[in-house]
Design brief:
Elements: H1 6-30, H2 38-60, H3 80-104, H4 109-134, H5 146-171, H6 176-196, H7 207-227, H8 234-260
Helix pairs in contact: 1-2, 1-4, 1-5, 1-8, 2-3, 3-4, 4-5, 5-6, 5-7, 5-8, 6-7, 7-8
Length: 266
Amino acid sequence: MEIYELPLVFFTVLAQWGIGGVIALTLCLVGRDRVFDTLTMRKIASAFWLVTVVGSCASLAHLGSPLGAYRAFAGIGRSWLSREVVAFILLNGALTLWLIMCWFANDSVWMKATNWVVCLLGIGAILVSSQIYYQMTLHPLWNTLATPSAFFGTSILLGFASVSVMANYVQQNLPATLKVGLLLGITLVAMSLLMRYRIPGADAGSALFWWQLLASLVVSGWLLSRAGSRKIPLFAGILLVVIILSGEFAGRMLFYGNVMSGAPWF
């Protein structure tokens, strides 16, 4: 299991999920039709904060000396790993402030501004994470546009799927924003798979690949086709998100495993 780099799998997938969820929730809040009442919005915001923080904490298991993470600031000018550490420190700080404002200053002008700041920091954090792998020219499976496509696809797919399930539960009809976001997530994940598995060395015969294809694309496609036209029971909706999440975990395990099986990778 070491070749799958599980701490990095949990870190990247969970953190990207949380970022995508915040983006989806923000777009719902700025739309003309308010999708969620204040209490529901606060609960969803708390869930995405927790997912992002847990994912970020998972990354510490990969560091040789977690308490030395502060040293990343010294290498920010030359190391993408250092930039990633700094990006997620800033993101989690802003995200915590955002959550506090969700509960205690929900209707303030500052809350609206913080929404967009967190979204921009999240997008930046994903870009930095993807660049760590994209820059490695020795590894064609990482040095491809499939890498940022997969990272953003995971974020948007999981984030918009989660918010879509909750929106369907409270009002059945999905706003066009959520439908477009979910479709974009499906498209990005599909594009990343198509690009990556045209590269020699990609394990297209792996059960992990086929599970991602089924769980991430087929299930999310079904969710997109059904969520806007009929009400899905909340438990069933949560189960669908868990299945999609498992598909993204499988895909990320293969992302690391295909390269790490040929270690050393630096």
